[in-house]
Specification:
The complex is a heterodimer. Chain A has a domain at about 55-165. Helices cover about 50% and strands about 0% of the residues of chain A. Chain A has helices spanning about 1-25, 55-75, 85-90, 105-115, 145-164; strands spanning about 95, 105. Chain A has a two-stranded antiparallel sheet. Chain B has 2 domains: about 1-35, no CATH class; about 50-250, Alpha-Beta Plaits (2-Layer Sandwich), CATH 3.30.70.20. Helices cover about 25% and strands about 20% of the residues of chain B. Chain B has helices at about 1-20, 60-75, 120-125, 150-155, 190, 200-205, 220-230, and strands spanning about 25-30, 30-35, 50-55, 95-100, 105-110, 130, 140, 160, 180, 210-215, 245-250. Chain B has a 3-stranded mixed sheet. In chain B, strands 1-2 form a two-stranded antiparallel ribbon. Chain B is globular and about 45 Å long. The chains are: A mainly alpha, B alpha+beta. At the A-B interface, helix 2 and helix 5 of A face helix 1 and strand 2 of B.
């Protein structure tokens, strides 16, 4: 009886030591060391409010762009709300990697999140991401698109309120 | 997240109200207003229009050099090809010299995408990248072009080019990239704004009417009147591809 309990206690002790050894090797190393830092895209060069609220743009910008590119190129519908050139107009930033920081380009802004999310699409093999005067001059982009963005957000809030 | 976006929304609304911007205002509820904004969206292109061009091959041949240079400047081609040779470098528009072997009569004419009504390049494209807009402008959708170059072989006018080299400094309205096929777009970005193609404008700025651009479907347009007045020809009209580019004097 006594020997049984001794064996049991020794076993428990053994497991405890084993667990501690393994645990210290596995868990003691801080998990943060291998973590990819969160992207922090540069603030827009101009303007405070994008075409849509930030959370909508983050999630849906690719759909806006792809949908509209097809309509523009294939159907000839010009001057809709979203366009790569209007992205460039506000979000092109200077970067020491591009032309020694002499020009504003969109690529560093996009690359921040795309590298983090392993998105391989590259618009800039063909599109020139550099800011050029008058690039955002779209007849269709309403001068108060910021107000429109606000309205969209407001409508969203109202719709939420109506659900409750 | 919701709280944050609400804060943001409130702030921007306050800023706008502070700015005192004037527009049509709809009151949804006390203190909550909506403003209506008219966006100047144009299009879609419809088959009510048929864009075309009339080129007078009797014009002095140096005007065509100006047309080619205007195209290069507008669309940004013909400057990056470090390894270019005449058989492979992009040519959206080129000056062709022709001679009648019997009479010895010579002429020069610009040849670019003929914007066919029945374009063979569209027929053969395996991805649908080669396409014709409703108003007759034939384009390459480079987003889905895989660079197979079937269209280049199909084109009776050899008007398409393949981009063999990396491209830099593209114009904002004209993305170009290695591995895709490209051709004259009839300056679709200008036409959609109600302007003339760059080559036509450059030539008419010189006071020449050697190139006329317009809507062939509109009987009052300059081109429709000219086409009904003069005998015009289309290159290889025997093929039945119905080009939109008409020529005089060939």
């Amino acid at each position: 009886m006594r020997s049984t309990s001794r064996i049991l206690s020794l076993t428990i002790l053994g497991f405890a030591i084993l667990a501690f050894t393994i645990g210290s090797s596995i868990f003691a190393a801080p998990a943060q060391a291998g973590e990819v830092p969160m992207p922090s895209p540069a603030k827009a060069f101009k303007g405070e409010q994008c075409l849509e609220p930030t959370d909508v743009m983050r999630r849906d910008h690719m759909d806006f762009l792809k949908h509209q590119r097809d309509e523009t190129l294939r159907e000839g519908i010009r001057g809709q709300k979203y366009s790569l050139n209007s992205c460039i107009d506000c979000h092109a930033v200077t970067s020491p990697d591009v032309a020694g920081g002499q020009v504003r380009t969109l690529k560093p802004f996009c690359a921040q999140c795309h590298a983090y999310a392993a998105v391989s699409i590259d618009c800039f093999q063909c599109h020139n991401g550099a800011y050029q005067p008058g690039i955002g001059d779209q007849s269709a982009l309403p001068a108060d698109h910021q107000a429109q963005a606000m309205i969209a957000a407001l409508e969203k809030q109202l719709a939420k309120g109506a659900d409750k | 997240m919701t709280d944050k976006s609400m804060t943001k929304v409130d702030t921007s609304r306050r800023n706008i109200l502070k700015g005192g911007a004037a527009a049509a205002v709809i009151t949804l509820a006390p203190g909550v207003t909506l403003r209506t904004v008219e966006a100047a969206v144009t299009g879609p292109a419809t088959n009510a229009k048929r864009w075309g061009m009339l080129i007078d091959a009797n014009a002095p041949s140096d005007v065509w050099d100006i047309a080619v240079e205007a195209c290069k400047a507008e669309q940004g081609w013909g400057k990056d090809e470090a390894h270019a040779n005449p058989t492979t470098d992009p040519q959206w528009i080129r000056k062709v010299n022709v001679k009648d072997p019997k009479t010895g009569a010579k002429a020069s004419l610009p040849v670019m995408c003929q914007h066919c009504a029945n374009p063979p390049c569209v027929d053969v494209c395996p991805t649908g990248a080669s396409m014709k807009r409703a108003d007759g402008i034939v384009l390459v959708d480079k987003h889905i072009c895989i660079g197979c170059r079937y269209c280049m072989m199909a084109c009776p006018y050899s008007c398409r080019s393949f981009v063999h080299e990396d491209v830099h400094g593209q114009r904002p309205h004209m993305p170009r990239g290695k591995g895709t096929v490209e051709a004259c777009t009839l300056c679709v970005h200008r036409v959609d704004k109600g302007q003339q193609p760059a080559c036509v404008e450059a030539i008419s700025n010189m006071g020449s009417d050697a190139m006329i651009f317009g809507d062939l479907n509109d009987p009052t347009s300059e081109i429709a009147r000219a086409v009904s007045k003069y005998v015009t020809q289309r290159i290889r009209s025997d093929l039945g591809v119905e080009p939109g580019i008409h020529y005089r004097g060939i």
